[in-house]
Each structure stands twice: as C-alpha cells, then as structure tokens.
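Deviation from plan, reported transparently: flavin-adenine dinucleotide complex.
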Amino acid sequence: MPIINKILVIGAGIAGPAVCYWLRRFGFSPILVERCANLRKGGHAVDIRGVAIDLAKSMGIYKKICNMRTQVELGRYVDAEGNILHEEKGERFGFREGDDIEILRGDLVQILIDAMGDVPCHFNQWVESIKQRDNDVEVQFKDGRTELYDLVIGADGLHSTTRRMVFDKDEYKLTNLGAYFSAFSIPNYLNLNHTDVQFEANQKLISMASDKNPKIAITGFCFRAQNVLNNLRDENEQRRFLRDTFQDFGWETSKILELMSDSNDFYFDSFTQVKMKSWTKGRVALVGDAGYCASPFPGQGSNQALVGAYIFAGELKQAEGNYHRAFNRYNELLQPFVEANQKFGVLVNESFLVRDEVSKEVAEERSNKIMQEIKIVSNMISLPNYE
Ligand SMILES: Cc1cc2nc3c(=O)[nH]c(=O)nc-3n(C[C@H](O)[C@H](O)[C@H](O)COP(=O)(O)OP(=O)(O)OC[C@H]3O[C@@H](n4cnc5c(N)ncnc54)[C@H](O)[C@@H]3O)c2cc1C
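Because the crystal trials were delayed, the predicted structure below was used instead.
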C-alpha cells in the first residue's frame, strides 16, 4: 500500500487551509503555498450553512465564526432615486435561517489559517511545473527549487493553474453563466447602520452594506454583459468595464464608482462554473473552486470547499493512505452534492438580474424559492464520520 505523508496544498483561500486542517488532524503532513504575498482577504460576505455548520462545529471554529459574523439587521431595496421599495430582516435578506451564519470572506480565511495550527504556509510562492512519477510528484517552484511530494492538491480557485497544468483541456469545462461579480470596500459615507441596501434594475444589481465596522461599507456589483473583456484577469480592464457598465445607473452608483479608485481590496470575476467528471488525476487532486466552482451568486462556494476538504482528507485517512481508493471515493461521494449546488447556481443566476423592476411580490417570491432550495442543496450530502 502506498505510504502517503508529504502533501503539497496550493492556494490559501477557503479550501486550502480547510484541507490542511483536516489532513493534519488525520495524521498527514501538509504544506501550504499561496501565490500572493499575504492572505487574500478581499471579497464580500459568504455563508456557512447546512452540513458545513456541522463541520465548522467539529473543527472548533463555529463559535469564532459566530463572534466575527456579520450583523446586518436590515435589507433594504431601493429604486434609482433611492426611494425605499421595501425592507426585510437581515437574515431573510441573506437567505439564512436557524444556525446559518454569514461572515466576511476575509475573516473566514483568517479563522481557517489560525485553525490549521503549525502547518507551514509559504507566501509569494507558486508552482512552475508538476511532474507525476510512479512513486511521487516532482514539483518545481518559481524560485527554481524542486521538491518531491506524495500528493499535490490544487486549491487555487476558479482560475486554477494546477488544473491547467495537470488536466487535459477535454477533462474540464468552464461554463460562463453570462454574468459578472465585483466587490470592494469604501468609506461608509451613507452612515449605514447594520444595513444592506440594494438596487436592482435592467439586469444589474448594486449593493452597499455596513455592519460591525461603521467606518467601512462593502459594495457588491452583479450584472449580465455580452461584451467579454479582452483580458478577464487584468484589474485595470475590470475596473474600466465596471465603470462603463454602471455609468448613469442611478442611486449611489456614481459616487461608489468614484470611491472605487481608492479601494485596495478590489475583487472581480465572472460567474463561471467548473465542471469535471473527476477531480483527481494520478497523484494530484482538486479541492474547492478549482474543481467545482458553482459561481459566487448562490454563495455556496465556501460550503462546497469546506465539505470537499473534509471528504478528501477523511477518505485519505479511511483508505490508510491508499490514494487510489481515497480519490475514487472522493469523486463518488462529492459528485451529487456538487451537481445539486451547480444546478442551484443556475437557478439563482436566472432568478436575479432580471430585466424588469423587482416589485415587493417578485422579491418575496424569489426569496421563498431560494430559501427553500438552498436548504435542500446545502444538506444534500451525509458526512461520513472519519474519527
Ligand atoms: C479575493 C477573493 C475574493 C472573493 N470574494 C468572494 C465573494 O465576495 N463572494 C463569493 O461568493 N465568493 C468570493 N470569492 C470566491 C470564494 O472564496 C470561493 O468561491 C470559495 O470560498 C471557494 O474557495 P477556494 O479556496 O476554492 O477558492 P478561493 O477563495 O478563490 O482561493 C484560492 C486561493 O488560491 C490562491 N492561488 C491562485 N492561484 C495560485 C497559484 N498558482 N499558486 C498559489 N496560490 C494560488 C489565490 O490567491 C487564493 O488565495 C472570492 C475569492 C477571492 C480569491
């Protein structure tokens, strides 16, 4: 039976630190590398719900998440002039109920990094090449160093380099859902108090929320667009694209776009789903968005990453290091959960960014449907007990 111990994990987002936590707990020796010089803490809030709550509890981080949770008490829908159309309680506005909890993505990343304890994490580091051999994987890093690992895990997000390096083009499909998402923080110049304000019209949505830190507001932009950027990864183009798309949109948009110039946590991406029949190849596996991104809109990315990380590490423990068996089980167990969440991603994508103005009735009907579905998909898997 192959002995597995030294495991390289690429990407310190949600999936990377989570898989390191479980691997370490189950007796393996993971090493984490992150391309950026620091943790990438940008982004909007993400939700922990369904079986991911059980995982957070079992990791001992649920209380911490509760302590750092967002505290949006009110969701407000406005029109182009800022008139209030209707309001909802914060939890319902975010499709949460019961133990479901919302936290800023950056806070969750920090909690996960803290939870993984003494797992080494090397910043400003990335992989130049991955060569699979019979008994190990030879990895060359950007500084020219070469290391051997028993396994390599790509947890490097939607635009995963690991996926590109290891899998053939016909082994994954990227499905662009025809929409984009952006988030960044600005000063809370509207003095929002635990409130999230949202304006949606003509297939565009802009939101601004402030809760725990009264000085800061986090903005969110979602929109459908046909004109694809020349280079989706170029931040200057992304900012220009956002400005062009939202100019004259109404409400506070002009002021928010003006303040965007000073934001240092700008995040922008397309609504893209990653579809793969298998997330493993040889001694390499993908965890999180790299293998099964469902797109940001349903807010299920962090849950999928947490669940995927647990199952991956747990199956490796269960198989006593027989990675062939563990990889097969990982693919098999996770596939229905991922399929349900991606289907849900399409439903949410179709429900928002509509052409017509969103009346109170339409918004309520939409919330009811999404709340019903999200509860089902976030519980769509029974977690094995690996302890
Ligand atoms: C800055 C940022 C902001 C986000 N904001 C939101 C949001 O507001 N709402 C939402 O729903 N989702 C957001 N997401 C996506 C969300 O985090 C994921 O959908 C989900 O949590 C799954 O996490 P992940 O760990 O698989 O991927 P990610 O969270 O994307 O993490 C991937 C990590 O890998 C690193 N990385 C990438 N390439 C390499 C490489 N070659 N070598 C080493 N490291 C690499 C990245 O820097 C990043 O830290 C954001 C992601 C990022 C990176």
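Residues 10-16, 33-36, 40, 42-44, 46, 105, 126, 155-157, 161, 183, 267, 288-290, 296, 299, 301-302, 305 surround flavin-adenine dinucleotide (CB under 6 Å). We consider this an acceptable substitute for the interim report.
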